[in-house]
């Protein structure tokens, strides 16, 4: 059966993580059909951790020779999700076998798949992976807003209390959140040249530092000349929340998968969860986070 990703009524556990029917179908199809190339680059995120932002930045970095003029940049007329498609949510849905012959190298893909579920060829070829996550409080609040925005009016909103309870139990899209993050964290420690681990809050705090890290990791470092010409600032401005969220395409347009582009832009701030979660909820989440991450060296 085809349910919508945001209904969240029937989640299925596959390889230890929760998915909608449609997502499981996409993951299975990818595992069976996707053949990676060693130059492929993968952007992996937990839902609502800044995927749209990361896609915009990585696409712009990797393609800056093809699109040197910022005034005619594809980001001005396309949502980042249409420029860097999700493997399991766009490319392989309905057992579709996508035609990649026209994609230029390096191919840029994104996914929310947990590490355990990534297609074998990605792991065997040791393709580069950029992993982005966000603190669990803001992730939860962003996810809650997003789910309610996309839920059909007929089934009504999910309450914050219910969303909170489900998230804490791990019953969120691609959850448990903490297990997803930990898998990639461990990979990034074992193979830092292969997995770059980023946090939304850190990019917000020092965007220039992290844009440089991202460019270097992807194999497209900025030259001194580019630094002098202000290319880094230009990319940061183009990809900023204010810039992207005010574009006509993101205010009025729809993704090729049907969602309103504006659903991917809400506040774009760190700490908005403090406006919604009670002190008890925050404490509860923090205790789960501490227990899950104990001994890993990872904290938010
Ligand atoms: P909020 O709901 O907290 O505002 P994703 O892209 O993974 O779906 O995550 C969406 C979250 O990232 C939303 O968070 C959204 O507002 C924020 N976001 C989208 N574009 C952004 C950008 N260019 N810079 C910073 N945050 C952005």
Quick summary of this structure?
The chain is built from 15 helices and six strands.
Q: Helical region count?
A: 15
Portion in beta strands: 5-15%
- Sketch the topology as an H/E string, one letter per element: EEHEHHHEHEHHHEHHHHHHH
Globally, the shape reads globular
* Order of adjacent strands in the largest pleated sheet: 4-3-5-6
Poorly predicted runs of 5 or more residues: 1-7
The CATH homologous superfamily corresponds to P-loop containing nucleotide triphosphate hydrolases
Largest sheet: 4 strands, parallel
Features:
single chain, 300 residues, alpha/beta, four-stranded parallel β-sheet, two-stranded antiparallel sheet, 45% helix, binds adenosine-3'-5'-diphosphate
Description:
This protein is of the alpha/beta class. The chain has a single domain, classed as P-loop containing nucleotide triphosphate hydrolases (Rossmann fold). The chain is 45% helix and 9% strand. The strands form 2 sheets. The protein has a 4-stranded parallel β-sheet with strand order 4-3-5-6, with helices on both faces. Strands 1-2 form a two-stranded antiparallel ribbon. It starts with 11 loop residues before the first strand and ends in a 7-residue tail after the last helix. Mean pLDDT is 93; it is low at 1-7. The structure holds adenosine-3'-5'-diphosphate. Adenosine-3'-5'-diphosphate binds at residues 45, 47-53, 138, 142, 145, 239-241, 244, 264-268, 272.
